[in-house]
Design goal:
Elements lengths: L9 H21 L13 E2 L2 E2 H26 L5 H21 L6 H11 L2 H9 L5 H30 L6 H7 L2 H12 L6 H7 L7 H10 L1 H23 L1 H7 L7 H19 L6 H27 L5 H16 L5 H10 L5 H26 L5 H43 L1
Antiparallel strand pairs: 1-2
Helix pairs in contact: 1-5, 1-6, 1-7, 1-8, 2-4, 2-17, 3-4, 3-5, 3-7, 5-17, 6-7, 6-13, 11-15, 11-17, 11-18, 12-18, 13-15, 14-15, 14-16, 14-18
């Protein structure tokens, strides 16, 4: 499909690309996060909270999806991306309809089926945006969407529930249905983006689908650094996902019961992270940008621990604590959802695709989320969500910082060693 002439203007291209990426992924969240806005208070199945079953089933579906996506996303041709996103979202909406129609507890399986296709959307969307000189700004728009949309969808769902009297079982489907038309428009707009130019490929390296041998070779080439990074990402993902899934319960226990707080806090976080990420576009040296991203991730991890300590000692109000932990989490989380690996690939001039590495990291990250949910319910069922969140913040912050420093030192050593070899080769 031919791109509009106005997209040849660099400024127009960035504004348009970041906007459509933001809108597309924000719409996707309406098909996933409506379930987190309700509590199903008092409902149990097999002695376990009904919502725990639902969230665990959905996250497990998401985790399985990421495992499938390691192959599907990395091998997907550019011409199939838009059609596949529509298919993934359509299956997810049908699963929410099944959840509404089938009585509890038999409808739990439909939350697994809802998460299963949606886990493939993010990696597919990265294919539209990666490998460009403007990728930092484009991915900033994409990642800002899931920060903003998480709170926005909760607020929309709670407003619908209050204004229309929609039951908790129908609420996820109704919420998703409201975003079908915006989703269609956004995906069409996404297909109008032109492919990377020769200048983009020279600056950020050629991007192409990867087969199984190429994926194994990439992992083997960077294994020590990837292991440390993915371990840190597992901690981060599990903690972020817990905050996202049980935000209403955490804030309610802290004495905050204003539904609009989700849209307010997450919008402020999205704007802050968007500005920081977009500014990286000005850094043309890829490894310098990679270093700055690692520094940002470390600051984010520290902010989670320090803000939680301030709240626990009474220095910080519950609302501001929730805001700052979110800011810290997303400062650390957002880079690993595209920009970290974008600059890593560009630094080492490795022909590959960001979608593969992000999906691989997400696979382990969401398995970690399932593990945290099971540990909370069966290991510490009597502890409130707020208390569990506080303990988790301290543990996550400390271990995360150590792991990120370790992974960065590995990649820095590799980069310096390869720079020396290139210099010697040029002299010879």
């Amino acid at each position: 499909m031919k791109s509009p002439a106005f997209l040849r203007n660099p400024t127009a291209f960035v504004l348009y690309g970041a906007t459509v990426a933001f809108c597309t992924y924000a719409c996707m969240y309406a098909f996933r996060r409506g379930i987190t806005a309700v509590t199903f208070e008092g409902m149990m199945f097999a002695g376990v909270s009904y919502k725990i079953w639902l969230v665990t089933a959905q996250v497990f579906g998401y985790a399985v999806s990421k495992g499938i996506g390691v192959k599907v996303v990395s091998e997907m041709s550019p011409s199939r991306r838009a059609v596949n996103i529509l298919f993934f979202v359509g299956v997810a909406l049908l699963a929410l309809l099944g959840f509404a129609l089938v009585p509890a507890p038999w409808n739990i399986v439909f939350l697994f089926l809802n998460g299963l296709p949606l886990g493939l959307v993010y990696g597919t969307m990265l294919g539209f945006l990666e490998g460009r000189r403007q990728t930092d700004a484009l991915v900033a728009g994409l990642t800002a969407s899931f920060i903003f949309a998480s709170g926005f969808v909760k607020t929309v769902a709670l407003t619908i529930k209050s204004a229309w009297g929609v039951s908790e079982f129908w609420l996820p489907f109704v919420t998703g249905s409201l975003f079908v038309l915006p989703m269609l428009i956004s995906i069409y707009a996404l297909t109008l983006l032109p492919p990377p130019t020769d200048e983009d490929r020279a600056s950020r390296t050629l991007r192409k689908p990867m087969d199984a041998d190429e994926r194994r070779a990439f992992v083997a080439n960077f294994r020590p650094g990837l292991i440390l990074l993915i371990l840190s990402y597992v901690l981060l993902s599990a903690f972020r996902d817990f905050r996202d899934n049980f935000g209403p319960e955490i804030l309610k226990d802290a004495g905050v019961e204003n539904p609009g707080i989700f849209a307010k806090t997450e919008t402020l976080i999205a704007v802050g992270v968007l500005i920081i990420m977009a500014m990286l576009q000005r850094v043309t040296n890829n490894f310098r940008a990679f270093t700055l991203l690692n520094g940002l991730m470390l600051v984010g991890g520290a902010l989670v621990g320090l803000s939680t300590y301030a709240y626990a000692t009474g220095t910080l109000s519950p609302g501001n604590w929730f805001l700052l932990t979110g800011l810290g989490l997303y400062m650390a989380y957002v880079p690993c959802n595209g920009l970290y690996f974008e600059r890593l690939i560009a630094s080492f001039r490795y022909v590959s695709t960001v979608g593969f590495i992000v999906t691989l990291a997400d696979w382990y990250g969401y398995l970690g989320s399932v593990g945290v949910l099971l540990y909370k319910n069966f290991g510490h069922a009597t502890i409130s969500y707020r208390e569990f969140f506080i303990y988790g913040a301290y543990i996550m912050a400390a271990l995360y910082i150590v792991l990120v420093i370790g992974s960065y030192l590995y990649f820095k050593g590799r980069f310096q060693a390869e720079a020396v070899l290139r210099e010697r080769a040029s002299v010879a």
